[in-house]
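Long-time lurker, finally posting.

We've been working with Thymidylate kinase (Gordonia bronchialis) and I want a structural starting point before designing mutants. I don't trust myself to interpret raw outputs, so I'm hoping someone here can both generate the structure tokens and explain anything notable. Sequence follows.
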Amino acid sequence: MGELIAVEGLDGAGKNTLVTGLVDEWTRRGARVATFTFPRYGRSLTADIASEALHGNHGDLRESVYAMALLFALDRSAAVAEIAAAAEAADVVILDRYVASNAAYSAARLHQDADGEVVRWVADLEFGRLGLPAPDRQILLGVPAETAMARAESRASADASRARDHYERDSDLQHRVDAVYRRLADASWQSAWHEFDGADIPALARDLLPG
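Top reply, 14 upvotes:
Generated this for you. Predicted structure of Thymidylate kinase:
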């Protein structure tokens, strides 16, 4: 059974770069690696509806913290069988965003902390009722929020298809999300966390490779 490793962080923190680097390092070392990216835009109706809401559609849907969190949770729930199959076949399954993102964003939107009610609700919903497997380890890309936001803005300016959504344009929200993420990591929420500054992907790959 392969290890589930979730990569978390703000938009623009460098999650895709980290995932690509880990896959390259582990594949070079002979490990079998599978990857999932959430939300599954273009593949999942609930993820697409959430994205549309964050870009101004579907009336006041995005105003409901719990409704948005449920859409993202249902997207992950629809991939449970795929994740299980990948874990059976691979040594490592990397999850680019996972349940902690729902916890961090929901708590930040409600001005709650990592031990708040909505974080417990997310865990009960996704790991409990929806049966998502808990990650074995989680990586927080701990680059400063200002750096991540600047990267996201630059990326959107260079590529019209990657326009920033309602969450990404809210700098106060991004700072609160960053704070909740760090507290989730400090509390080892659901599993052990590793905070990574993006400097040495090969070293991180050596530290995390199972066996």
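Before you design anything, note these points.
The longest strand covers residues 3-8.
Residues 171-186 form the longest helix (16 residues).
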